[in-house]
Amino acid sequence: MARADDTAATADSSVSHPLPAPAQERFLRLAFTAADLLMELGADGTIRYATGAFNTHFGSPAARFLGEDISRLIAPADRAALTASLAEAVARGRSAPAVLHLANAARAPLVFAALAADGAPPGLSVTLGRPPAAPREAGEVLDDPATFALEAEMRLATGASASLALIELGEEGPGEPGDAERAAWHHAIGGALARAPELGADPLVGALAPGRFGVIGPGTADLEALCRRLETLTGPGGEPGGARGTGMRLAAGDLGAVRAMRALRSALRSFAGGGVAGLAKAGFARGLDGFLEEAGQRATAIQRTIAGRHFRLVFQPVVSLADRKVRHYEALLRPAPTLGAPPTSTQEFVSFAEAVGLSEELDTAVMEEALAVLREAPGVALAVNLSGLSLQDGAFRERLLAQVRRAALPRGRLLVELTETAEIQNVAAAKGTLAALRQAGVPVCLDDFGSGAAAFRYLRDFRVDFVKIDGAYLRAALHSPRARAMLGSMVSLAQDTRAEVVVEMIETAEQEALCRAIGAHLGQGWLYGKPGRLPGALGR
Question: What are φ and ψ of residue 464, in 5° steps?
């Protein structure tokens, strides 16, 4: 319940539109959300109704903020995220919960949510409050990974003394996914974790993926002993299986709260998708502590790489399968070795940049280099990769559109490929960026379609001109009727959205013939050329 240190304040008509009585009733119904601050905003983002703990957080009553832009309440570093959440609420009727820090001395982190307000004039109902109470009964497991991640972020943001344990089971247990036996096994493992003495009192247990659990507890746990005890529950019929885990202290260290939360999200995604091995591959071999200890130095090195343009672009042709004529080239990043950073692959470089909040800087620099190439090679079209994280950032969107406007290219000479290295949380903001690009004459390609479940959601949510199918399906299709059927289904699905289909990793004439047979339009792979210099671009 909102604290009762403020009375409700409504802007009069000289400041903004008064809030109708039904809207006031709506705010009373919203009180159950445990929000500290309740507001209604006008279409321009100004506060026209406010109630809650304004005195506690800002030292002034709610009435003091009527007519002000809501961004005044939010810390400058989080205002881009606020803008994106408001845009999402306008576009979709509500925004997903997001952790934002207040613009007060304590920089208090609260969960922001917005709901489109009914009636006239139009507006948004907004809450800022603490996260919903986590389950605390012994044996209870949180089944929503997003809510579990939000709780972990709140612990990190508030500086609470807490640790995160990630437990992976060597077997996925009995039965098939979704059946009663598997569900019972999953509940048994979650309950065992929730009651484990190694994790302390009242741990929060979340199921992040089949056989993979996260646990937030008060301190460091003896994970080795815990895994030994869990092994008797992991195999079918109670037979011993394998279990392993890693621990992370939920503290920002020298990286700062914003980058630390991005790193935490990256760790949870990596673990859910690839387990302990996936964590290590993403740079979390020593947990979040080890990642954060090294992250400051590595982030500085990556910033030097970006600022000094210590990278190069190589180019691989994308051809028409009908006649093998080049339609465009994909620009591929190749970072140079940098002092202060260990040798790394391009994928690791990009993933780390996303984890520490540098994806926007990197994408801006790569786009700048690609546009310079296009000026040198007027007869060429280029596709440039953009991170899903960058597409959600309002400031990046403005920089990107300014770059495109200055370039003044004919439609189709510049394309963008939406990569799935980081999952998009604010779909409305990313959708707005992609729509603005298409309106500016920049076609959009959905990259690596099929490599993850999110890609299917993106095809539903985003209007795209091209869909690039993950080459792993092509490699399997020649030897597996099932894989061939899946590949054909993905091509049909993409064509239903009126997108042209690109298949990557084509290396043989036999693979090319298969792609033509299933209706793909374009191909990319070593059969047509390895990444290298761009014809017509001198010195590049």
Answer: -130, 160
In whole angstroms, what is the distance from residue 392 CA to residue 396 CA? 8
Cβ atoms of 229 and 189 within 8 Å: the answer is no
For the cut 80, the answer to whether the pLDDT of residue 346 exceeds it is: yes
Question: HEC string of 277-332?
Answer: HHHHHCCCCCHHHHHHHHHHHHHHHHHHHHHCCCEEEEEEEEEECCCCCEEEEEEE
pLDDT for the residue 22: 44
Asked if residues 168 and 275 have their Cβ atoms less than 8 Å apart, the reply is yes
Which residues on adjacent β-strands are paired with residue 523?
319, 503
In sequence order, the 6+-apart residues with CB closer than 8 A to the CB of 10 are: 18, 19, 24, 48, 49, 66
Q: In this structure, what token pair is assigned to residue 466?
A: 């091209």
Are the beta carbons of 76 and 42 closer than 8 angstroms? no
Identify the structural domains of the chain with CATH numbers, from first to last.
9-129 (3.30.450.20), 145-285 (3.30.70), 297-524 (3.20.20.450)
Give the list of residues 6+ apart from residue 394 with CB closer than 8 angstroms, or none.
Answer: 80, 83, 84, 87, 429
pTM of the model: 0.57
- Where residue 314 falls (left for φ over 0; alpha for ψ -120 to 50; beta otherwise) is beta
Residue range 29-59, pLDDT digits in tens: 333 344 678 888 888 889 988 887 888 888 8
